[in-house]
Write a structure and sequence with these properties.
By secondary structure, the protein is of the alpha+beta class. The protein is built from seven helices and five strands.
Length: 163
C-alpha cells in the first residue's frame, strides 16, 4: 500500500506549539489582540465576537463566542446567551447574503468527547453548506477541499458587514 501525502504546511504552526502554548485559549488570545484581520476576527460586540474557523469544514465556517471565558452553556448569563444567539442569527444572514449557501449546520459541541476542539471556551459553529459540497475526497482520502483562502473569505464577509 502506498501512503498518499496531503501537504498542509499551515498546520505546522499548530503542531509545533508546545503544550503550554496549546493550553492558551485561542478565543481569549484573539479577542485580546487588536490585529483583527490577521486573526480573522470578524465582529466584536459588547458580550460576544465572531472568528473564522482556521480549520474550516467549508468556506465561511464561523465561530461565535462570548467575550467572557466560560466553558459551558450553563455558565452563560442570560444576557450573554441572548447576545450569542442574536449574533448567530446576524451571521447566518450575512453568510446568506454574501456567500449564498443552500443551507447551514449550526451547532455546539460541549466537551472534548462531544467534538469540542477547544472545550475551555464555549462557542457556536456556523457552517455554510451548498448542494454538492461533498465529494469523494472526504470519503476516500479523508480530505476536505476548501475553495478559497481564509483571507479571501474574511475580506468578502467584512465587506458584506459594511453594506
Amino acid at each position: 500500500m502506498v501512503m498518499e501525502r496531503l501537504w498542509a504546511p499551515w498546520r505546522a504552526v499548530y503542531v509545533t506549539k508546545s503544550d503550554a502554548e496549546k493550553a492558551e485559549c485561542i478565543f481569549c488570545a484573539k479577542l485580546n489582540d487588536p490585529r483583527d484581520r490577521e486573526n480573522h476576527l470578524l465582529v466584536r460586540r459588547e458580550r460576544c465576537f465572531v472568528l473564522l474557523n482556521i480549520y474550516p469544514y467549508n468556506s465561511g465556517h464561523l465561530l461565535v463566542a462570548p467575550n467572557r471565558h466560560v466553558a459551558d452553556i450553563t455558565e452563560l448569563t442570560p444576557e450573554e446567551a441572548l447576545a450569542l444567539f442574536q449574533l448567530t442569527q446576524e451571521m447566518v444572514a450575512l453568510l446568506r447574503r454574501v456567500m449564498k449557501p443552500h443551507g447551514f449546520n449550526v451547532g455546539i459541541n460541549l466537551g472534548r468527547v462531544a467534538g469540542a476542539g477547544y472545550p475551555g471556551h464555549f462557542h457556536i459553529h456556523i457552517v455554510p453548506r451548498w448542494d454538492g459540497d461533498t465529494s469523494f475526497m472526504p470519503v476516500v482520502g479523508d480530505v476536505k477541499v476548501i475553495s478559497e483562502t481564509l483571507d479571501q473569505t474574511y475580506a468578502k464577509l467584512k465587506e458584506g458587514l459594511e453594506l
